[in-house]
Each structure stands twice: as structure tokens, then as C-alpha cells.
Amino acid sequence: MADVGEVLMSVLSTIRVPKPGDRVHKDECALSFSSPESEGGIYVCMNTFLGFGSQYVGRHHARTGQRAYLHITRTRKAKEDENNSGSGHPPKKKPTRLAIGIEGGFDVEQELYEEDVKVVILPDRQEVTSEDLGTMPDVVRERVSLSMSGIMAADSVSHTLQVQQWDGEVRQESKHAADLKQLDNGVKIPPRCGWRCEVCDLQENIWMNLTDGKVLCGRRYFDGSGGNNHALLHFQETGYPLAVKLGTITPDGADVYSYDEDDMVLDSKLPEHLAHFGINMMTMEKTERTMTELEIAVNQRVGEWEVIQESGTTLKPLFGPGLTGMKNLGNSCYLNSVMQVLFTVPDFRSTLVMPSLFSAFIIQAKLGYGLLSGEYSKPAPDPGDEIGASEPRGDQVGIAPRMFKALVGRGHPEFSTNRQQDAQEFLLHFINMVERNCRSGPNPSEAFRFLVEEKIVCQQSQKAKYTQRVDYIVQLPVPMDQAANTGEELKEAERRREEGDSSAPTVRAQIPFSACMAALSEPEMLTDFWSSAVQAKTSATKTTRFASFPDHLVIQIKKFTFGLDWVPKKLDVSIDVPDTLDLSGLRATGQQPGEELLPEVAPPPLMTPDVEVKAPVLDDSTVSQLCEMGFPLEACRKAVYYTGNTGIDAAMNWIMSHMDDPDFSAPLVLPGSSSGPGTTPTESLSEEHLATIVSMGFSRDQATKALRATSNVLERAVDWIFSHLDDLDSMEVSEAGRSAAESEGGRDPPPGPRVRDGPGKYELFAFISHMGTSTMCGHYVCHIKKDQQWVIFNDQKVCASEKPPKDLGYLYFYRRVAD
């Protein structure tokens, strides 16, 4: 074996020193969830700074020829007995600072590790430590030492992502703090307790104005709790900007609010400002919750958190393949719950975890392997302060989906942050992402895709219009007026809760599932519908039915709404969602025998009798909105014309139902016009544009169709052709079939979106629940049925469910069952 110094010299040119901007992956393997704490540690390529677990570093070496890797391993140190009272200090069990959005939720003492770092040369795995470098030539020692120290000192990619994503509230110094005016009015505030609002005698949520010492109650919260706004009213009358919450004063600080800046702020002169009114900050103790703690408390509905998380019952921890927990990266529980459910759907398991997966889904494949393999489904090390705990919690080592979260959130204004999000919106976002990347291969989103048929019947002419659209989720309304329990019972429970009665029982509106389905299927009255049959606006009914039934059905309970004051709120309801579902009665029937259709004509354009009008009068704003969505200009003009300028919704429905028409993007031709199909601008296409698209591997017919659909604009044609690959693949067959049919006097319908269809009978296999008052706060967990047993996935906790709260879910997932 060659001398290690000579080997290092031979690979010295491949060893780089990290520069500012280099992404150093030293906390997690690029292809798995191995970390420095895992068995075998992690190997960081000293050229690309990618990290690899022990099972993948050899593969990277074989593929790239890179030989020098920095091997990092960490071993957890044994904790000293914190309960030992011999030191004279109390045990450190209580969190010292509550923090929303950080991993675990609390700023507790960090784990201690022993770290071992050395250079490993493949393929012989020769090892070089920092001490070994002292005996090597200066040029080797200097380059390798700088690379090692640079890698270790650099922020890891996971840390950088956390900093970029975290959008938490960082309090700033108030502009009023340095020169705050304080009145010499002789006011002295008692230092401990007994504070009351000087206006209403309220004893909670009490604030002192730092200018005149007035003690008043704080703001009223949107749920009715809090104060009576007297501190705010005092600011509006006097203009005195800063107030401190008296019950939060400790030697470490306090909650200070600036009414002028409308935000929580820092006051570097707080001890001096408090001393002016006789308060010694160093002797104060906290007697009230901080605003951060109150935010969490307000978000926790009475009983909801305990029921959904099955608190108070002994849950058996589960481990093994398909039972892997996911770490909360700071408000990422919505992502964890959705992905746990998706990777139980066979289409996603087979498509996104394939070894031969194309590059766009490497990170998804990594996530799928991490969840399904069972490799990371192991009990977490026992925390020192929980030894002897009577209730097993099911905490796992689990996986931290940092790279996946960064990938799916890239460029999105919400999912790229660490703020809480709506699980339903994330599910649709991920499905759209899969759709964009699976146009030329297996598409797992087809498992959820279905067609909706909307039937509109003009009440005056009784003629009908049918349209179809693609959807992925059934949004189920919640008819509160159909609650099984009485309104008086609900009002009494709400009154007792607002009065702070801790003994008040938890009472929710009990909505029958059948009432929700009836609200979904009943006809909707349209009062301002323009009927092409009577050439005027009239009333109509709209009925929605399933034109196809997907393999997997997602139902969203529309719990989130807005109050009369437009404040977001959540309906606290209990719905008896069934384990089995039969939607066969909601199958669309299409046009019925003898039923007449509404003619597709628009009213005559607005004109005066003595003026000839050569072009229709169209709503330019509606046309512009449609064009901004990427539709051809002429198609947008036709949509607005044929829907009689009745608005964006009607025009969009026209576009969606005519996208596959051969003349979809052809210019608008009015009745009686001399223009014909042979004279439209789309007939003369740029030969240069055609040649460019043909050179990409498409046929001339396909290139022609793409250019015609995009008004002969090359860039848009390229985007269009890649988004319609399925239609283009079947174009020759469809066109040949259409020609044959037309020769027989018939015509095949143009190919539509690819959907699966089958019986409308389903069984429940998973549901996602939300705790909190709105989608922007709270917590998500999911329950999944595995081998006829319900399992609760609560971030890193995976346990057998004893009482799955199926009546409190937000998203429900059904799979088709055979007849």
C-alpha cells in the first residue's frame, strides 16, 4: 500500500477549501438520512462538499473518481445526573424559553457529543488525522488543514435552510426607547401583584404605560378573551407609545409593546424606565404568561388537542418499515402528515421510490426510502430528564426532511418559510409539482385525479349546458344549521368557557355526514346567469356530479371560514365520518334523452343603429386576466365573447371545456364575416419555429399544433408542447380515428385528461387532523390504517391508536373497494 503522504499529494488538486457561498452538506447524506450520529458517520467529499453515508460513499467514489473525504462521526456523551441535589441547584427539567417554530418547540439544553474528524482516502480507506498532518510536507499540511477546518467551520446546508426559512418574530429596539418621555407625577406601582385595570378592575392581561404609569388592561383577542382595550384607548387619547406587561417582568426582561409601531419591541432602557415608577426589575418574578405563551394557549381549543393526540392514554410505540417518524423542522407538521399519508398510496410508493428514478425526484425517493425502509424507525435515545417516565411516548430517531422541504418549497412565498401552512394547500401544491415532472412517465397523481361534471339548467328555457373539469379533492361544506344538538346547549357551553369556567364540558356542534353530502349534491341557484337561449340574464340551477371516480378519494371538511368581521376562524364541529362510503348515486349522467342544450352563441355586440361595428365589444380586463394565465389571446377573446362578457368565471369555464377544440386558438370569426378558416393567421406558421421544435424530436404535426395553440410564439409553444405530451402521443391515432369516423358521418371527441374510473365505493384508510384556531397556527397529526390497525403519526411519535378521533378530522383519504 502506498504511503499515505504520497497518496495525499497525488489527490491534493482535488481537495478544495470552502469559499463563501459554497454549500457544505456535513449534517446529512445526500441520498439517505444518515448523519454524523448514525452508525458509520458521514463522509464529506472534499471537492464538492456533498455528504454521504457509509453505504453510499463507495458508490460516489466509483462514479466520480473522487478519493479524499472528510469522515465525521459524533458520539453522544452520557449526561450527568441532573437530579443530583448535591450541587445545590434544582434539576433542569423545565424549559427555559418557549419558542414557536424551532425544532422540538423549546430551547432546552443541547445534547453534548464527542466528535471525531479525519480524512479518509478511498478505495483503500487510508485514514489521516490532524496529528498525522504534522509530519507531512508543508504544502500538503496547509491545504488539507485549511480544507478540514473550513468544512467544520462552515454552516451546514441544513442550518442555512433553517435560517432562510425561519420567518419568526425577531423583536427590534423601539424607536421611542432611547428618548422616552416619563412624567414626574409621583406614581409608584406596587412591585408584586394586585394590579388592576384603573378603568374596569380587570386583573389579567394588565399593562403599564411607561410614560405616565397608567395601569390598564390589554387588547381583546379575536376569540373574546384578553382585555377590554383600555391600554390601547389610552394611547389613542394621549399618544404615549410604550407599555409593559406587568406580570411578565423578570430580571431577564419583559413584554414591551409599542402602540405607535404596532408591534412587540425591545427596550434597552427598561430597568431605568421601570425604576421611575418604583419597580426594581431585578427582584421581579413572572406571574403571567408572555404573549408568546398566550398565542399558543389561544390556539389550543379546550379538549381538541388532548382528543386528537390521544393524550392521557397509554399508547404502544411502533417501529419497523412504514412506521418511521418525521422530525418537526419548525411548523412542518403539515408536511409530515401529508407525506406520511401519500407514501401509503401504492402509486406514490412505486413511482417515487424507484431506484431508476430520474433526477427531479431523487429527494422524494430519499424521503420515501427513509419512511418505508424502517432503517430509521428506532427508539430515540432516552433523554436524561425522562428516565423512569411511566408513559411510553413513542419518540423515534426518525428522519428530518430538510432537503425535501427546501425542494418543494423553493420559490413559493409560503412553503419556503417556517410558518404554519394549510395541509390541503400543501397537498395540492405537491400534486401540481408531481404533475409537472411526470408528463412523460408514470404519474402517481392520477390516483387522485377525477372529472367533475357541472350541469347548468336555464330556468326560463329549461335548456342545459354541460362542462367538465379536473379535480383532486372533494370539498365538503359544513351546514351548521343541521347540527344535531341544540343551539342553546352550544351557547351555554361557549358562555361558560368565556367566563373561564374550567369545569365546563367540551361541547361541539354535531353535524351528520349525510347533511354535508346533501349540501354538496343539492342544486345551487344562480341568480345572474346569462342564457344564450333567451339572450338575456335569468336564473339557473347548477348541479355538480362525478364524471369519474378516482382510485383514491380525498375529502376536505371545510372547517375554515371567515367571521362577520372577516377574521379567519375554524368551525369546532364533530362529524360522524363513515368508514365506508358509496358515492354511486352521485355519478354524472350526461345529456338526457330529449334534453336540449343551450346554444353556444353570445348576444349581439353593443352598437348603435347608425354605426357599423366590425369587432365585438369585449371586456378588456377579463381578456387580460385570461392571457396572464397563459392562454392564447384569440382563445381568450372568444371565451369572453361566447359567454357574453359575464365575467372571468364563465370565461374560464368556456376555455376549460374548449381547450381541445382544433380551432381553440384561431381568431374570433363573427357570423357573417368574410374571414374563413383558410385565411386565419395560424395557417401561416413560421418555418423557422417549426424547424426548431422538430429538431427537439417532435413531429411536424405536433410542432404545428403547438404553434397554433400559442399564436405562433416559439417560447410559449415549447412550454405548451411539454405540458401536453400525453395528448401529442395519441395525436396521430386520434386524428386517424377522427378521419375514419368523419367519413362515416360521425366524430370522436378530442382526447381529454387521463383519468381512472371505477365503482364509487370506498373505505377510509387515513385522515389528517388539525388542532388550533386557524390554518396559520396550531398542529397537525395523521392517523393511518395499517394491517387493520389505526396508527397515529405525531411527528416523531408513532404509536398504535386506541381511540382514533375520526369525527374531528380535516382531510380524509379513502381507497376504492371492489364491488
UniProtKB/TrEMBL annotation:
GO molecular function, one term: cysteine-type deubiquitinase activity
UniProt-listed SUPFAM superfamilies: Cysteine proteinases, RING/U-box, UBA-like
Comp. bias regions, Basic and acidic residues: 488-500
Top-level taxon in the UniProt lineage: Eukaryota
Catalysed transformations (reactions): Thiol-dependent hydrolysis of ester, thioester, amide, peptide and isopeptide bonds formed by the C-terminal Gly of ubiquitin (a 76-residue protein attached to proteins as an intracellular targeting signal)
Residue ranges constituting the USP domain according to the UniProt record: 324-817
Any GO BP annotation: proteolysis
Lipoprotein is among the record's keywords: no
Keyword line: Hydrolase, Metal-binding, Protease, Repeat, Thiol protease, Ubl conjugation pathway, Zinc, Zinc-finger
Family stated for the protein in its record: Belongs to the peptidase C19 family.
Protein name: Ubiquitin carboxyl-terminal hydrolase
Species, as recorded: Poecilia latipinna
Biological classification of the source: Eukaryota, Metazoa, Chordata, Craniata, Vertebrata
